[in-house]
Amino acid sequence: MTVTEAPRIVTSRLSHPDSHTLARYLDTGGYRGLRKALSMHPEAVGAEVEALSLLGRGGAGFPAGRKWAMLRRGPVPYLVVNGDESEPATFKDRLLIEGDPHQIIEGIVICAYAIQAARAFLYVRGEFALGLERVTQALNEAYEHGAVGADIFGSGFSLDIVVHPGAGAYICGEETALLESLEGKRGFPRIKPPYFPAAIGLYGEPTVVNNVETLSNLPWVMVNGAAAFTALGAGRSTGTRLFALSGHVNNPGVYEVEMVKTTFRDLVFDPVLGGGVPGGRQVKAIIPGGVSAPWFGPDQLELPLDQDEVGAQGSMLGSGSVVVMDETTCVVRAAWRITRFFRRESCGQCTPCREGSGWLENILRRIEDGAGRRSDLELLMDVCDNLAPEVSWPPQQTTICVLGPSIPSSIASGIRMFRDEFLVHVKDGRCPHG
User: Fold this and answer.
1) How would DSSP label each residue in 307-343?
2) Most buried residue among 141, 328, 411, 417 by CB atoms closer than 10 A?
3) Which backbone phi and psi does 133 adopt, to 5 degrees?
4) Domain span at residue 303?
């Protein structure tokens, strides 16, 4: 088991205690990528990013360059940066916001220059108090340094960046709900198609919405070139990616690893990464891409961290969160807690999500409390089928956004992989794990 010696693209400064400061950023090559980008034609910058296959690191995995190319021509577009990071057990963007805010700012300016935006909004989760403090200070430093504002580095290009704290709603991690929130409205997702943000976005204007980690790659790419980035990984999954590893592992944390050439087993068991399961216990299941994702069993640990291959196996890399559950885990309780979260965070706009999440949580709670019935398993799957027909992955849409159809993932995974454990709860009226 070996981890490749890939360069650390977005976490190279985090070993320094002052990584969030302008002085450290400049000492480690900061804003060189922006200066190079400003010397190029905006379309050339866009073409460089499109050649990368830089898949979005926020969850959907849509290529960043293609998203930029979809912009409706004519009006001056907006750039919106999603730093809400609301998926449970996902904490990689928070690390970047707190530890290297200048890298984010440089990536924002590079992207804005490529799409010729005059204003950008950095939407940061309100609970990230330290991150908000540091990114605000970094933005002030960037203005003073001439990296943001009027006539950036004498290039003639101007950009203003607004830091906007969110109010902690999970749904605002969905890009159109985020736009509604930015406009001062309730965070309700918008129907798409036909109105994708690239055509009609913030304030009705063309808008690009990118994730914090996605844009943090751009400074390195501008300095080292697209070929150096695509040499890492394989296929469409190029470069490195951050994974937030948590659950039953000896070394939980955020790790930047090379895509495709690293497996889930490497991530969980390599001594320099997860370090294995406490007490030498066995892996029971992993959640490979945030709690919205279907689970994998221990037989799938050899899968590479490849977006397409993980998708072909019926799940996703999603938000970059990997949760490990060992043999002591109660799968009924795990599914119930995940479902309870989604019930609380449903925006309530769509009936299947609003009502179905409540029914699912109530049934799971009944089983967990020892009052379950054998028929509850079929009832759970029936309600799941109403939320996501055929309970397959990727889910069929019955709601405006994907939150509702994602709710069945943990329930269906639990029943399909550990049906006997559900039946023991029903038969014995208690959890076999105590």
Assistant:
1) HHHHHHTT---TTSEEEEEETT--HHHHHHHHHHHHH
2) 411
3) -65, -45
4) 232-326
